[in-house]
Design brief:
Blueprint (H helix, E strand, L loop, with lengths): L1 H29 L1 E9 L6 E2 L2 E7 L1 E5 L17 E8 L2 E10 L8 E4 L7 E4 L5 H10 L2 E7 L5 E8 L2 E2 L3
Parallel strand pairs: 4-6
Antiparallel strand pairs: 1-3, 1-9, 2-3, 3-8, 5-6, 5-7, 9-10, 10-11
């Protein structure tokens, strides 16, 4: 009886972990892919431990939710708002509008604004930190992300000057 309970106690958590991994991978396959430019969030310490700290650089097409920063015309990511992504014929990066979350019906993809608010983190191997930090200072960086139909954003891969970065 003890052996059976031990087996159940070990197998159930493993099955749960596999289900979580499968769900995350399915979201990557099921969603719409986008390339989003990024820049280092903290110039003093871009690489913090095993993570690259970054912020997204979005091509803003306007906002009907939240406020713009006074005097700068910059759109601030607002709590309670969503971001609507659209293709731009002249750019590989999407155009982004901030709007109320109940207005996302006409969007190709959408996600909650708070999900893109800085600082963001991207896992990197510790021994590649110095190399990546130098590359981020001199090259254009972007992330390929996938956004599922329910607005969940999943990071797929880091790109430097349009080429995938291999850790």
């Amino acid at each position: 009886m003890k052996d059976r309970l031990l087996l159940v106690a070990v197998v159930i958590p493993i099955l749960g972990l596999l289900a979580l991994i499968g769900r995350a991978e399915f979201k990557l396959l099921d969603g719409r892919p986008w390339m989003l430019r990024i820049h280092g969030y903290d110039p003093r310490d871009l690489i913090s431990g095993h993570y690259l700290r970054f912020a997204y650089e979005l091509d803003w097409e306007g906002s009907t939710c939240g406020e713009t920063a006074a005097g700068f015309g910059e759109i601030q990511l607002a709590e309670g708002c969503c971001l609507c992504f659209s293709e731009q014929s002249w750019s590989p990066y999407p155009g982004v509008r901030q709007l109320a979350c109940d207005q996302v019906d006409g969007c190709l993809s959408w996600t909650r604004a708070r999900d893109l608010a800085p600082p963001q983190r991207y896992f990197i191997p510790e021994d590649r930190g110095t190399e990546l930090e130098e590359a981020l200072r001199t090259r254009e960086a972007a992330l390929r992300v996938t956004i599922s139909d329910d607005g969940t954003l999943a990071i797929d891969r880091l790109y430097l000057d349009g080429e995938p970065w291999r850790p």
